[in-house]
C-alpha cells in the first residue's frame, strides 16, 4: 500500500496538526538558542523576571547602566567577570534577551491558535485537554526557566545543573508531546495512538541520555576530558575524585557524568537500531531518519569533546538532540499505527484501517 492511496485527514484536524508542528519548529529554535546562551555564559545577565515589560530591551545609556549595575551585584560578576566592560555585558545580555523573547513568542504561538481553534470548534473530540496541556506546559516552562536563573543570583556563580536539566527535559517533553499529538491528528479519523512496549523502553533510554547530557552542560563536564574513546589514557580515570555519598557521583561529579553520557549513547543507539529494523519494512524513510539522527548525534558528541567544546559544534550537538527526539517520536508513532492497523485488520475480517502518513504525504512508499 502506498501513501498516495491512503485517505487524508479532514481540513480541521490537519490545521490543528500544522499549528502544533509550527510550535515544534519554534521549540527547536528555542533549544538551539538556549544552548548558545549556556555556552556563552549569558544566562545570568538579566537578573529580573518581567514577563511583560521585560520584552523591551535597554535603549538609552542610563537603562544599560542600570542593567549592568544589577548584574554587578551577583556572584558571577564579582567572582568571575569583575572588570567586564559594558560592551562585553551587552554581548551576553543579547543572548539571554533573545532566549526570553523566544519564550514569549512560543507562549503566544501556543495560546492564540488554541483560542482560535477552540472558538471555531475545530479541535477534534478528545484533543481539547491535550492541546490545552501543551499551552499549560509552556507556561510552566517559563516559570521553570526563572527558577533555574534564580539559582545563580545569590550564592552560586552559575545556575544549578539540576534545575538546568529540569528546564531542558521539560522543553523536550513539550516538543515530543506536541509532535505525537500532531501525528495523531494526521491519522485518518485523528485516532490517538498508544506507545508500544518497545517505544516505552526506547523513550526511557533516551530520557536518561538527555538527562546526563543536561548534567554535562550544567557542570561544564565537557571540558573535563577532551579525548575519545579514552578519558586521558584510561577508560575511566583511576585518579578521579569520588563524592560521598556514592550516588552523588551520578549527579554532581563532572567526570562520572561525562563518562556515563559518553557510553550510554551506545545503549540508545542499540534501541535506535532495533526501532529502525522494525520500521524498515514499514516506512523506509522513518528508518533512515532514525539512523541518520542518532548517527549524526554520536559523531557530533565526539567532535564536541575533541574540539574542546567549540561553540558551534556544541550548539549543533544540542540542536541534533531535538532531531533525535523527533526521530524516536515519529518512528515509535509509526509503529503504533502499524500495530493499530494490524489489530483493526484482525478484528474486521481483513478490513485494514488506513492511515495518512504524516511526513511528506506525496512520497509513496511500499509496505
Automatic annotation (TrEMBL):
Quaternary data: Interacts with CtaB.
Lineage, highest ranks first: Bacteria, Pseudomonadati, Pseudomonadota, Alphaproteobacteria, Sphingomonadales
Protein name: Heme A synthase
Enzyme class: oxidoreductase
Residue ranges of the TM segments: 20-39, 131-149, 164-183, 195-217, 259-276, 288-309, 315-336
Role: Catalyzes the conversion of heme O to heme A by two successive hydroxylations of the methyl group at C8. The first hydroxylation forms heme I, the second hydroxylation results in an unstable dihydroxymethyl group, which spontaneously dehydrates, resulting in the formyl group of heme A.
Keyword annotations of the record: Cell membrane, Heme biosynthesis, Iron, Membrane, Metal-binding, Oxidoreductase, Transmembrane, Transmembrane helix
Annotated catalysed reactions: Fe(II)-heme o + 2 A + H2O = Fe(II)-heme a + 2 AH2
Obligatory cofactor(s): heme b
Gene: ctaA
Protein species of origin: Sphingomonas glaciei
Cellular localisation: Cell membrane; Membrane
Entry binding sites for heme: 261, 317
Sequence similarity: Belongs to the COX15/CtaA family. Type 2 subfamily.
Region entry Disordered, spans: 344-367
EC number: 1.17.99.9
Membrane topology note: Multi-pass membrane protein
Pathway: Porphyrin-containing compound metabolism; heme A biosynthesis; heme A from heme O: step 1/1
Amino acid at each position: 500500500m502506498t501513501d498516495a492511496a491512503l485517505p487524508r485527514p479532514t481540513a480541521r484536524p490537519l490545521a490543528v496538526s500544522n499549528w502544533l508542528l509550527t510550535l515544534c519548529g519554534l521549540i527547536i529554535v528555542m533549544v538551539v538558542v538556549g544552548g548558545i546562551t549556556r555556552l556563552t555564559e549569558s544566562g545570568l545577565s538579566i537578573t529580573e523576571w518581567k514577563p511583560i515589560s521585560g520584552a523591551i530591551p535597554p535603549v538609552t545609556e542610563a537603562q544599560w547602566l542600570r542593567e549592568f549595575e544589577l548584574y554587578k551585584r551577583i556572584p558571577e560578576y564579582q567572582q568571575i567577570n569583575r572588570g567586564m566592560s559594558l560592551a562585553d555585558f551587552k554581548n551576553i545580555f543579547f543572548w539571554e534577551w533573545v532566549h526570553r523573547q523566544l519564550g514569549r513568542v512560543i507562549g503566544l504561538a501556543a495560546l492564540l491558535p488554541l483560542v482560535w481553534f477552540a472558538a471555531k470548534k475545530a479541535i477534534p473530540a478528545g484533543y481539547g485537554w491535550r492541546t490545552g496541556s501543551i499551552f499549560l506546559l509552556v507556561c510552566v516552562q517559563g516559570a521553570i526557566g526563572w527558577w533555574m536563573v534564580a539559582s545563580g543570583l545569590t550564592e552560586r556563580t552559575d545556575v544549578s545543573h539540576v534545575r538546568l536539566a529540569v528546564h531542558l527535559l521539560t522543553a523536550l517533553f513539550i516538543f515530543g508531546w506536541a509532535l505525537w499529538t500532531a501525528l495523531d491528528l494526521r491519522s485518518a479519523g485523528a485516532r490517538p495512538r498508544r506507545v508500544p512496549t518497545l517505544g516505552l523502553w526506547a523513550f526511557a533510554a533516551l530520557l536518561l541520555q538527555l538527562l546526563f547530557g543536561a548534567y554535562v552542560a550544567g557542570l561544564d563536564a565537557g571540558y573535563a576530558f577532551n579525548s575519545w574513546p579514552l578519558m586521558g589514557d584510561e577508560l575511566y580515570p583511576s585518579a578521579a575524585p569520588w563524592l560521598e555519598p556514592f550516588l552523588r557521583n551520578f549527579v554532581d561529579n563532572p567526570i562520572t557524568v561525562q563518562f556515563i553520557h559518553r557510553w550510554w549513547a551506545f545503549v540508545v543507539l542499540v534501541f535506535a537500531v532495533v526501532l529502525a529494523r522494525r520500521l524498515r519494512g514499514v516506512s523506509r524513510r522513518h528508518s533512515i531518519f532514525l539512523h541518520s539522527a542518532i548517527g549524526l548525534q554520536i559523531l557530533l558528541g565526539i567532535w564536541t569533546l575533541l574540539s574542546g567544546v567549540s561553540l558551534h559544534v556544541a550548539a549543533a550537538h544540542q540542536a541534533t538532540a531535538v532531531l533525535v527526539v523527533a526521530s524516536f517520536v515519529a518512528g515509535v508513532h509509526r509503529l503504533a499505527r502499524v500495530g493499530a492497523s494490524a489489530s483493526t485488520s484482525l478484528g474486521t475480517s481483513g478490513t485494514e484501517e488506513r492511515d495518512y502518513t504524516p511526513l511528506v504525504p506525496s512520497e509513496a512508499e511500499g509496505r
